[in-house]
Amino acid sequence: MRSRPVIPIIGRRVTVPWRLGQYVVPAGTPISMSVLLVHHREDLYPEPFEFRPERWLGRTPTTYEWIPFGGGTRRCLGAALAMAEQRVVLEAMTTRLELEADRPEPERALHRNVTMIPARGARAIVRARD
Ligand code: HEM
Predict the structure, then answer these.
(1) Nearest of 54, 46, 68, 53 to residue 1 by alpha carbon
(2) Are residues 94 and 130 in the same domain?
(3) How many separate domains does the chain show?
(4) What is the reported pLDDT for 12?
(5) Residue 25 belongs to what domain range?
(6) Of the residues 34, 35, 69, 81, which should be mutated to test ligand 1's pocket, given the most ligand atoms within 8 Å of the CB?
(7) Model pLDDT, residue 63
(8) For 118-128, what is the mean pLDDT?
(9) pLDDT interval class at 44 (50, 70, 90)
(10) What does DSSP assign to residue 49?
């Protein structure tokens, strides 16, 4: 959800004149925020392109550095459900199955509509655990 956020970009329309750093944005302007780029900021995530799940150990990300569900008043309504589902499904899978990627090299991401998905469908060799 950090390195391959399902939704890489979210959008808003500015309703009042707004300033972000050196940029002044007039009311009515559509703007996009890149979840993907925030999640790959070197200052927030050293070696951002490395998959290192242990980087989360003992650390909770702050509001604006981990935003797979967007943010503010239009943040994803299903975020808590999605996280709960992941905990249940991933735990059930990892306790019962051994998963191995079908190819050793990293799989590229592909855009489909507004989402980002594994380009080859995340194919895996699946074995039941003893
Ligand atoms: C891993 C799973 C999911 C991801 C990564 C995800 C991500 C997102 C993102 C990025 C947005 C846009 C938020 C923004 O603009 O700030 C969104 C909106 C939304 N999501 Fe999800 N979502 C997930 C699962 C779900 C589920 C399970 C539900 C419902 C059961 C759901 C319902 C919604 C709704 C209703 C909105 C629109 C909220 C609004 O515009 O006020 N999402 N989601």
Answers:
(1) 68
(2) yes
(3) 2
(4) 96
(5) 1-75
(6) 69
(7) 87
(8) 95
(9) very high
(10) T
Q: Do residues 81 and 67 both lie within one domain?
A: no
pTM of the model: 0.92
- Cβ density class 20-44: b for 16+ within 10 Å, e for less: eeeeeeeeeeeeeeebbebbeeeee
| Residue given tokens 């709960």 in the structure block | 84
Contact 45, 35 (CB under 8 A): no
The token duo for 89 is 């499904």
Ligand 1 pocket, CB under 6 A = 6-7, 10, 68-71, 74-78, 81-82
- Per-residue pLDDT tens over the stretch 8-22: 999 999 999 999 899
Q: Ligand 1: distance of its center to the CA of 7 in Å?
A: 9
Tokens, residue 79: 């975020």
Rounded-to-integer distance, Cα 118 and Cα 112, Å: 10
pLDDT at position 130 is: 82
- Shared domain check, 34 and 21: yes
On whether the CB atoms of residues 39 and 3 are closer than 8 A, the answer is yes
Helix residue ranges, H only, the chain: 35-38, 79-96
- Whether 72 shows a pLDDT value over 90: the answer reads yes
Residue 94: pLDDT over 90 = yes
